[in-house]
Amino acid sequence: xxxxxxxxxxxxxxxxxxxxxxxxxxxxxxxxxxxxxxxxxxxxxxxxxxxxxxxxxxxxxxxxxxxxxxxxxxxxxxxxxxxxxxxxxxxxxxxxxxxxxxxxxxxxxxxxxxxxxxxxxxxxxxxxxxxxxxxxxxxxxxxxxxxxxxxxxxxxxxxxxxxxxxxxxxxxxxxxxxxxxxxxxxxxxxxxxxxxxxxxxxxxxxxxxxxxxxxxxxxxxxxxxxxxxxxxxxxxxxxxxxxxxxx
Length: 247
Prior knowledge:
The chain is mostly helical. It is built from 13 helices and 2 strands.
């Protein structure tokens, strides 16, 4: 049987395959260093050369995610990454646009309320904000603004049960934009039920902070099932610490 052809650039062969086999922090840092020229080109092409730390971190996270799906037998890695990094254009535009005061608030509140009721009936549980956004046509930011939540705990602090069954913080609150970017990155890869648990626990997207028992009732799950899912989410959030020295 003939070997599959490879379009992977020679200079990227070792860092890519080493990272692919073992994506530990050191191998990830080496891989990101190897593809840094590609990321710089993408930022220049799609983001007008913007070089904020948040946008750079976003580009790195997008590149790592895209690299997981890269097939060396189909295209060059540079071509694949440049294609997958095109959404940087929208991210860059959004980061420079001023935040406008909301319009037609009452209409949007009605739309949000209607969408929540419809999805609750269809799904048999409370929908995640991502599901609400898809169903209502409202953006995540718009929904967060409409909710005008005032959470008891800081956004970015995931809650879990202690030995007595009381809810307590899993880890320190998220305090900077890069950590919030990592939250969004983790959130986007979760399925809807886990998205709801994450945003209700963290107070994301305007959600009020909820206790484990309340989340379980909303989703019609057992408190134990919610705790298990929350622990898995926390494990993903903790990877931010491992990757923090090069993001």
